[in-house]
Amino acid sequence: MTTTEIQNDLSEGQGRGFYRAAVFRRQAILATLLMGLLLSLCFDLALGPARYSLQQVVTAIFMPGSASLQERVVLWDIRMPIALMAVIVGASLSVAGAQMQTILNNPLASPFTLGISAGASFGAALALAFGIAIIPGSIQYVVPLNAFVMAMLTALLIHLLTLKRGVTVETIVLLGIALVFSFNALLALIQFFASQQALSAVVFWTMGSLTKATWPKVWITLAVFVAVIPFFIRRGWALTAMRLGDTKAESFGVNAKRLRLETLVLVSLLSAIPVAFVGTIGFIGLVGPHIARILVGEDQRFFLPASALCGALILSLSSIVSKVLIPGTVFPIGIVTSLVGIPFFLSLILRTSRPSW
């Protein structure tokens, strides 16, 4: 064996070692995020008007027969749907934001900044203020149905724009910003004509709240999340390639336009359902993916689960904060996430150094 071959073998061995170390580090980060999420979920269940220890929470979850009737009712029937809804909604919005940023190659893309959340707010306000049902259905679900339909119509409008020749991703982002302002203006018009009682309901809904979470809503939101995620897992390599730009992605055999269309439809569904049930919760779809990107990079094998875990953890922690800011009062969770997200959003806009990717 020549000296050159020996050097090549050593270099190849070092490369494999670096790769295994990088994979292990990312797996450790994912495990840490998962443990943090489970701990946050337990604290979220423990806090409230009646406070329980972590031991009582764990006992009620894994050994409900050993817990008292009051503990089972409070933790399982009242707090568990709210706590799980925070986890699922946070994961859904964060994954939606992550894939929007991927296909549009824009660090500010998210369901909130592209107008999907604003469209949902407008649809919900129509039902809350004037009783208008876009699709006839159960009175109990007229608000989430309106919100879902308007969110999907907003996504359809964005999709139709992508079909026009010569349209760039920058144009799509600008359209989303225009939609945000348009729906906010329409929402203000509804608030102007609404009665005092309806106005209070509209304002509360637009703040975002988990307090009306129920088990059926949890299962529906979870079902959508579970149905959409496998597509992103299967197309993980192609989505990673999209970060190199359409030209390079297509040179690898990726149909960039088709992938962008499929992803846009799925992330619209992934963000419309949670917003329809819990109201407008901003910045989760913006902050979660950026934190995940900083921790594990762009590889979808790690970026996708990290985005879901970061979003779930942020919203779960926000749920805890909303309970402890003022004892006895539960703040709308949308206020908490905005207070966290606005500084981060401004830092992205004002950043003049190298790109955040």
Automatic annotation (TrEMBL):
<keyword id="KW-0812">Transmembrane</keyword>
<dbReference type="Pfam" id="PF01032">
    <property type="entry name" value="FecCD"/>
</dbReference>
<feature type="transmembrane region" description="Helical">
    <location>
        <begin position="264"/>
        <end position="287"/>
    </location>
</feature>
<dbReference type="InterPro" id="IPR037294">
    <property type="entry name" value="ABC_BtuC-like"/>
</dbReference>
<keyword id="KW-0813">Transport</keyword>
<feature type="transmembrane region" description="Helical">
    <location>
        <begin position="78"/>
        <end position="100"/>
    </location>
</feature>
<keyword id="KW-1133">Transmembrane helix</keyword>
<feature type="transmembrane region" description="Helical">
    <location>
        <begin position="141"/>
        <end position="161"/>
    </location>
</feature>
<keyword id="KW-1003">Cell membrane</keyword>
<keyword id="KW-0472">Membrane</keyword>
<comment type="similarity">
    <text>Belongs to the binding-protein-dependent transport system permease family. FecCD subfamily.</text>
</comment>
<feature type="transmembrane region" description="Helical">
    <location>
        <begin position="28"/>
        <end position="47"/>
    </location>
</feature>
<dbReference type="InterPro" id="IPR000522">
    <property type="entry name" value="ABC_transptr_permease_BtuC"/>
</dbReference>
<feature type="transmembrane region" description="Helical">
    <location>
        <begin position="112"/>
        <end position="135"/>
    </location>
</feature>
<feature type="transmembrane region" description="Helical">
    <location>
        <begin position="329"/>
        <end position="350"/>
    </location>
</feature>
<protein>
    <submittedName>
        <fullName>Iron ABC transporter permease</fullName>
    </submittedName>
</protein>
<feature type="transmembrane region" description="Helical">
    <location>
        <begin position="302"/>
        <end position="322"/>
    </location>
</feature>
<feature type="transmembrane region" description="Helical">
    <location>
        <begin position="173"/>
        <end position="194"/>
    </location>
</feature>
<feature type="transmembrane region" description="Helical">
    <location>
        <begin position="214"/>
        <end position="233"/>
    </location>
</feature>
